[in-house]
Amino acid sequence: MLQIEWAEMHMPVVARFIRERFEQEKPLKDVRVGATLHVTKETAALVRTLVAGGAEVRLAASNPLSTQDEVAAALARHDGVEVCAWRGMSEDEYFSCIRWVAKWEPNIVIDDGGDLHATLHKEYPDVAGRVWGGTEETTTGVIRLRAMEKEGVLRYPAIAVNDAKTKTMFDNRYGTGQSTIDGILRATNILLAGKIVVVAGYGWVGRGIANRARGMGARVIVTEVDPIKALEAVMDGFDVMPMMEAARRGDVFITATGNKKVIRREHIEVMKDGAILANAGHFNVEIWVPDLEEMAVSKRVIRPNVTEYRLPDGRRIYLLAEGRLVNLVAAEGHPSEVMDMSFANQALSAEYLVKNRGKLEPRLYMVPREVDEEVARLKLRALGIEIDRLTEEQKEYLSSWQL
């Protein structure tokens, strides 16, 4: 409970402003909310706010290694939340907990990565057809929902919380940027200054990581497949090159693409002795671990969250956090302050879905602009910052084509 208290002290938007209103209005009264999220102290703040709004919540993990066990226990013991999550779950255990949430027939689905959305549609289509709506926390999950919408199989309206400006511009950039570096340093205790750090992907996550690494004195290389993002990285002052070339130079490699096999056999074959591999994307497929397993002649855990793979020629490659999210497995995930905005979007999007039940088509929606702006206003309020407002004359000027 003390960890949750610490998080909530730094999450005034979710844990104070929204929760106080939810306690009074009960906008989620008797609503079953099924959630698959990283079970951390910050997630506890969101869950407790949903409960304050009248919701019944079932919570499962969105990663087998990210659960903070003491937080899961506290939610179950003190808040009456049903939780199916523990650190070190097997893959079968992980998906059994997701099925446990799906079979409960939730009204609202809150997901982080898309596994709950996908499980509902693949294994429980009748249940999916009765879901009022869902939300999605991550880039990876939004990609999966967008594919489902394109194929015409999405059974309920879903809100891309990840794409809210108050989420992706802050959580993805500042949150992942800081917490990824935190995870790498906790796992390895290496000095970043002077190291060549290769960042795969220059979306908001990649931008954050690259800038934080540079701020600690690293020499940063960016790899990209998108010409616009690659050009942006160049203009931001980073070296940009194909992964095959970067693989020969890098000391530390960090994947942040949302795709699979970003680092694979041909890249590992040319890496330096002692190269460190870390993943900041949602799933453990960006660094293709099966290739490492096949190539290695020996393997050992040399430090917590650091596995050494020795190759036939004697070179050693170090994989962090088993290729899973290094910021959550080797550290504590995003700082509470940035998750405050992300989870504010989750809470308000859940409320929006309940209020608009039956009015939305089964497709992917952006977070309503008014919700996004409300989160920003509340965060500024929490920071004690005031901003200007347009005068009526200014509003008229901006809405007219007349000179």
From TrEMBL:
SUPFAM superfamilies to which the protein is assigned, alphabetical: Formate/glycerate dehydrogenase catalytic domain-like (SSF52283), NAD(P)-binding Rossmann-fold domains (SSF51735)
Molecular function via GO: adenosylhomocysteinase activity
Binding positions (NAD(+)): 138-140, 172, 201-208, 224, 259, 280-282, 327, 334
Positions with a binding annotation for substrate: 40, 112, 137, 167, 171
Coiled-coil intervals: none
Pfam families found in the cross-reference section: AdoHcyase, AdoHcyase_NAD
Record carries keyword Lipid metabolism: no
Cofactor(s) needed by this chain: NAD(+)
EC number from the UniProt entry: 3.13.2.1
Domain S-adenosyl-L-homocysteine hydrolase NAD binding per the UniProt entry, residue ranges: 172-333
Main location, first listed in the record: cytoplasm
Cofactor annotation comment: Binds 1 NAD(+) per subunit.
Cellular component GO terms, alphabetical: cytosol
Keywords on record: Cytoplasm, Hydrolase, NAD, One-carbon metabolism
InterPro entries the record matches: Adenosylhomocyst_ase-like_sf, Adenosylhomocysteinase-like, Ado_hCys_hydrolase_NAD-bd, NAD(P)-bd_dom_sf, S-Ado-L-homoCys_hydrolase_CS
Keyword Chloroplast: no
UniProt-annotated location(s): Cytoplasm
Family label: Belongs to the adenosylhomocysteinase family.
Function statement: May play a key role in the regulation of the intracellular concentration of adenosylhomocysteine.
Stored PANTHER family: ADENOSYLHOMOCYSTEINASE
The protein's name in its UniProt record: Adenosylhomocysteinase
Natural source organism: Pyrodictium occultum
